[in-house]
Structure formats: C-alpha cells, structure tokens
Task: inverse folding
C-alpha cells in the first residue's frame, strides 16, 4: 500500500477511503444512514400524527414547570398604558393563570414559549406584517408579558406561586375574528445538556401539545373593560371605557 | 499489530526514541500546568502583572498594551495600543470631608471608615487614553481599597487620573499634571502602597512612607 | 490483506478508547467535597464571615405589596430580606440569592419594583441590599436564605468550593398576619451604609 502518497489523509480522506472499501450493499446502507442523519435537524424523527390534546377555557394543563390555565382571549384597543405599536392596530390579549408546580424557580419569559401567538386572529409581528396560520410555534411573534395584579413585569415564578398574566400581541386593526386557535407548546427538561455545557433547564420543543378554539371578546365588551381595569394599575387612561 | 519499518529499516522503538525520552518531561510539564494559578498567565482577569515599582517619592513608569475600540480616537479603532504613563505620589493624607458631588452615594465619611486624599503627579504624551483609571490604596495585609467594581465610584468622583473638573479621559496638553482623589479605608488601617491601573492585568506600585 | 485489517483496527481504536475512558470517568466516585459550596450558618442580626466578605442579614419582613419603583403585588407573599455586605480584601460582585423552604424547594429573588438580586461590595464600608422573594405562604415556615458571591447557575455551578451563607429567617405562619393588606412596604435599591455598620459596634 502507498502510505507515503497521502501522509495525512484528513477526516474527509479517511471517510473517502472507508467508503471506497465498502461493498455495494454497504454503500447503499451507509448512504441511507447518512441521509437520515442529515435530515435529523429538520425533523426526520418527529411524529407525523397531529396528536394535540383539545384545550378549552378554564381547564388547567401541565406544561414544563407550569400549570397553565387559559382564561380567555380578548381583543382591545388599549390595555391600561399598553398600546399597540401602530395606533391603527389593536391588542390581542391571552389571559392565563400560571402556577409553578415544580420545586425550582421558573423563568417567566418561558411563558412566551409555552403560549405561542394565537392562530387565525390577525396577529401581526413588530413590523406590522401579518403572521401566516401555518408558521411554526417557535417562529411566531413573542408577546409582551404583564402581571395583571400590578400591571408590572414578571421575572421569576417561584414554586407554588400563582399569577394571572396577560400575554399581549399586536393585532391587525381590521381583524375582527369571532374565535382564535390557542396552542400550547411543550418544554423538555434538559438534565444534562450536550457535553455537560448547559444543564438543568427547560428547552422549548416548539411542538404543539394542546390546541383549542377560544371566543375572542371584541373591543368594548364588558369583559374587556373589566380586564383593562384589572391590568391598569390605576393609570386611568383606558381607552375602551366609552 | 504488524511491525512496520521505515525505509532505513529502523524499528518503532528506534524511530520514537527521542520522543520516548522526552515523554517524562512532557508529563511533568503537563502536571505543573495543571494548576489554578496558571489562569493568571493565560487569562489574566485580575491585577496580576506589576509593570513597575517605585520607592517612596520616586516615579513609576506604567507601560501596558490595551485593545482600542476607537471610542476616543477612531483612528486607533481595533488596534493594540501601548499606554505609557509616569506617575509619582505627591501626598497621601487623611481627609476630613468628602468631595462634593451630585452623583455621590456616600455624602459623608461612613462610621468605621477613614477617608484618604491621594495626590499624584502624572506625565503622559498628550492625547493618551486614560480611561478605566483606578487609584488603589493597599494596606500591609493586602487589602485593596478604592478598586472600582462594576459600578461607578460611590463617592461620585470622576476619572482619578485626570485633573479636577476635566470631563474627558484623555491626557491633557500640558504633558504633566496633578490629580487628587479620595479613597475610603477601614478606620485604623494605614495604606503603605498605592497602585495605579487601567484595568487588569497591569499595574504599577508606589511605596508610601 | 493485513493493511486493510490494521486500518480497521486503527479506526475502531478511537471510539473504543473514548468509550472506555468515558466509562472509567463516570465510575470514579465523586467526593461531595469536590464541588459543594462551604456553608456558613448564621441567624438574623448576626454577622456571618465568609472569608471574601462579611454578611449581616439585618431584617426580615413579610408583605403583600412592595413599593420601590412602582407598587408590586405578590403572587404569594413577599419575603423581604435586608442584608449588608462588606468585602474583606477587594471589591466584589455579589450575585447569589436563594430562599429554600422546609421542603427543600428553592426560590429565586426578584428584581421587580426596587428589589435587587445582585450588588457589588467593597471593603471600607457596608453595602445594603434588599432581596425580595415572592413565595407561596406555605414556604415561610422554616425557610432559610442562601446568600453568596457566586450565582446559583446550574446546580450551584458558580458556588463550587466557595463560601455561602445559610441564614435561617425564623419565619412562621404568624408572619403572614403582619403581611396584611395595608401600606405597601417601601424598598430601595442597593446603596452604601453610611451610619453605624453591623459588626463594628462591639469592636471599639
């Protein structure tokens, strides 16, 4: 054998030599394995079936460290001091009650991973572009989060503590949907990450585990007024009172 | 394993003899390198490099490289710049009051603390960037007072390398100038060294009487 | 042909060696002393010496609402812990704050309203910080805080082989009565202590 011709074949050289040494069957099998491996990041192993569990208002659901209860979906012009980025738009608010049922503190920002933007309700992203109905959960626009009790921010949710939160998206001003589809996406507990570099955290799966249609309370309805008042924090600038 | 020979017909042991002899030394070097302190050599995030040391009343010469981001002089952006500053202690004495500042978090000497006024004379090429300057007082037991942590100076003082009331952090046209800054220590502690630094790892030491 | 066999052996050698080494490393028993923090116990009002800093928990209060930068309403109840840090030999960042209840549930501090989760500490003067933990009412009884310079990270990654103060808060269910729905409790961000520091009173 002519070892001297290629003293350091490198990784690709080794792979080429190895591939060349395989029989026809071996080549076919190797090719198939390589194809599956290459397709893995694009979801080759994902379950094909749409097996989301039905979701309805007031039913608690376990997601990651949280128990999440979707209370209602509200469309409103303003929510206290919160206004849409474009004055012609509206706000789409998902009101939820969340409890940390684990033994560790949970990051409130992960509520945005758990509750992706509702589908079919005219949600627009921060540049005002409409969001298509088939956009993957992880690619939908992220909501602003408010603790309804004090209209403030929420950073951590400690074990056993319950908050009523408002998740707020921008909604197309002309959209007047009667219902919207609310999805819940799961979180996976990563006890030990790749090479132990990143351990013990909740990783968004971006896979829909629960899904249900909710009535959207239109602007100016009684429920909306109550909501805006509740999250208002006493600013008195609610634009929906009239 | 097949015993291979090269074209001179030497065996494996002969060919690798030198490396086998060196191997114990390499293992010893690896063991020595397996030390926490060596991080100071490769990743010096602390003040570990004393550039110069001056006796009482003498001048110390600070020479240290830093990576310029071009914030002061865009012409120097993304280059390594050598900063050269000469420094001499004029006086270190206890101070009764604290400097007046609207951004001070501490407006009078705290109970259990002593305030020291440190007066220095600096010499540098006009235009030298003196950002992140720190004047630190050390006591015999190694306690460092006056290090700027992540926050700003709680006494609300500006850059301690700059003349009073200057707004920027660039060496003035005069080339030599005096500075005055106040550092808090624990009551009863007397500093015996001043350190001047522009961030880790370089500093110069100035002995005090 | 022997050349092909030896190549296969070389190729196989790498995964086998890595596998064997990995197995060996996981079999070596981990001594708890290797990566556990050094816990120093203390009580409210007592100065805990951690080597790199002295810590005194000066006050523990319970409130439904706190007011620093706007009013924050607790989801459970706020445990408000006032502490004073004084660094020993150099200026430090203090980043670890955790409340652990009797059932070993851990709780993170919040930076809602005027509360802080981290500060810097210097020698020469005390630095006061107010930690706020929004916890379930049943977590009060037997709760303690773990305060240190390193953050918790992943399973205490930044506290390994470093001192952490464990201070019992001495709370019980009765503390809930004082929480009440009255005035919101005033809290302020970290600041140096100018008046008499804890730990220096008896020194003169």
Result:
């Amino acid at each position: 054998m002519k070892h001297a011709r290629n003293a350091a074949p490198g990784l690709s050289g080794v792979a080429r030599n190895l591939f060349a040494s395989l029989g026809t069957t071996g080549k076919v099998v190797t090719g198939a394995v390589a194809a599956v491996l290459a397709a893995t990041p694009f979801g080759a192993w994902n379950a094909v079936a749409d097996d989301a569990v039905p979701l309805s208002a007031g039913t608690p659901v376990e997601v990651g460290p949280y128990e999440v209860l979707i209370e209602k979906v509200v469309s409103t012009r303003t929510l206290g001091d919160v206004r849409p980025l474009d004055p012609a738009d509206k706000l789409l608010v998902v009101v939820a009650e969340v409890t940390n049922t684990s033994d560790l503190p949970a990051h409130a920002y992960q509520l945005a991973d758990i509750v992706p933007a509702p589908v079919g309700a005219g949600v627009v992203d921060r540049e005002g572009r409409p969001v298509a109905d088939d956009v993957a959960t992880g690619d939908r626009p992220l909501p602003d989060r408010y603790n309804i009790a004090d209209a403030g921010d929420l950073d951590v949710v400690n074990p056993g503590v319950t908050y009523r939160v408002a998740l707020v998206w921008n909604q197309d001003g002309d959209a007047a949907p009667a219902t919207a589809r609310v999805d819940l996406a799961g979180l996976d507990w990563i006890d030990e990450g790749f090479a132990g570099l990143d351990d013990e955290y909740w990783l968004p799966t971006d896979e829909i585990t629960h899904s249900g249609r909710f009535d959207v309370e239109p602007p100016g309805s009684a429920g909306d007024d109550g909501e805006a008042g509740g999250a208002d924090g006493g600013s008195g600038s609610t634009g929906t009172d009239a | 394993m097949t015993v291979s020979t090269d074209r001179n017909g030497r065996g494996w042991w002969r060919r690798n003899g030198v490396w086998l002899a060196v191997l114990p030394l390499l293992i010893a070097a690896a063991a020595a390198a397996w030390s926490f302190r060596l991080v100071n050599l490769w990743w010096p995030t602390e003040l570990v490099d004393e550039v110069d040391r001056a006796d009482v009343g003498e001048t110390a010469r600070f020479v240290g490289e830093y990576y310029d981001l071009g914030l002061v002089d865009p012409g120097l952006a993304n280059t390594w710049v050598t900063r050269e500053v000469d420094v001499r202690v004029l006086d270190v004495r206890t101070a009764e009051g604290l400097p007046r500042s609207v951004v001070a978090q501490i407006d009078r000497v705290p109970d259990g603390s002593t305030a020291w006024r440190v007066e220095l004379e600096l010499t540098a090429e006009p235009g030298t960037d003196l950002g992140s300057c720190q004047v630190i007082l050390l006591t015999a037991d190694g306690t460092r007072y006056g290090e700027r942590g992540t926050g700003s100076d709680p006494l609300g003082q500006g850059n301690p390398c700059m003349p009073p009331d200057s707004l920027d952090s660039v060496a003035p046209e005069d080339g030599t100038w005096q500075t005055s800054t106040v550092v808090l220590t624990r009551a009863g502690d007397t500093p015996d060294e001043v350190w001047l630094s522009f961030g880790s790892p370089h500093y110069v030491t100035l002995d005090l009487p | 042909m022997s050349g092909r066999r030896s190549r296969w052996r070389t190729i196989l050698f790498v995964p086998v060696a890595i596998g064997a080494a990995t197995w060996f490393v996981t079999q070596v028993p981990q001594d708890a002393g290797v990566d556990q923090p050094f816990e120093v116990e203390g009580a409210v009002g007592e100065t805990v010496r951690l080597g790199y800093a002295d810590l005194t928990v000066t006050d523990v209060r319970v409130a439904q609402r706190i007011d620093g930068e706007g009013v924050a309403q607790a989801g459970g109840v706020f445990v408000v812990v006032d502490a004073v840090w004084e660094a020993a030999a150099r200026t430090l960042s203090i980043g670890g704050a955790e409340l652990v209840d009797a059932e070993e549930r851990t709780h993170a501090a919040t930076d809602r309203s005027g509360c802080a989760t981290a500060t810097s500490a210097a020698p020469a003067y005390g630095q006061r910080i107010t930690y706020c933990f929004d916890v379930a009412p049943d977590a009060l009884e037997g709760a303690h805080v773990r305060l240190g310079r390193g953050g918790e990270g992943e399973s205490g990654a930044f506290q390994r082989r470093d001192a952490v103060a464990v201070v019992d808060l001495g709370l019980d269910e009765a503390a809930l009565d004082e929480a009440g729905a009255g005035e919101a409790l005033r809290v302020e961000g970290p600041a140096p202590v100018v008046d008499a520091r804890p730990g220096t009173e008896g020194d003169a």
